[in-house]
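Hi R.,

Here's the input for the pyridoxal-5'-phosphate complex you asked about:
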Amino acid sequence: MAENELGIKQNVEKILSELPAGVELVAAAKTKTPEEIREAIDAGVKIVGENYVQEAIEARNVGRNVRWHFIGHLQTNKVKKAVGIFDMIETVDSAELAREIDRNCGKIGKIMPVLIEVNSGGEPQKYGVLFKDVLDLVKEISGLKSIKIEGLMTMGPVTGNAEDARAYFARTKKLFDEIKSTGIMGIEMKYLSMGMTASYHVAIEEGANLVRIGTGIFGERNQLAL
Ligand SMILES: *Cc1c(COP(=O)(O)O)cnc(C)c1O
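And here is the predicted structure with pyridoxal-5'-phosphate in place:
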């Protein structure tokens, strides 16, 4: 039986029961209704990941005791709304975006935890920072007062075979450890967000402690409304 033939509740309970200690689940909720998100929260989800600011605005009333992570591509004109809603932005991929988050957080007296999105496959069509540029970006934005770098996030190439992603996850973990060992002031390398429904087992083996799971919880995605 395919995972999406089980209910949301059973999917969440099964995943949570199988995750190793120290690994947190992010329920990737894009295109899902507030009711579906509530069902996942009722079943034990503690972090909801949203790709779209507008969907998060519509859904956030369902989860007062959960954390909201932004996991999509953040356009600078959406930053103002995003910083008011999210508890973490996992997809910082430029100094410009980091400065815009910092500026808007400064205005509301908030310090935003952020992850740097790494384009670990070096794919031209994907967002994220290339391996060779990540450390420079971290150094460049580490002094911003209203953001706090807490780790790295990557998608990795999606090929249909999770094993194909292993080398990219391993390399991202290596970079994560290297940045951690630099002792750059003002950052705290805590989170490594890697792995989706098809690849999270491999990602965990390679050191992920945040996994972002969508279809494995909610089933196939609803028609994209945005
Ligand atoms: C949709 C999405 C996921 C979840 O993907 P699934 O294959 O449905 O588990 C994870 N991360 C990001 C950034 C996404 O956009």
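One thing worth noting: The first helix runs from residue 8 to 18.

Cheers,
M.
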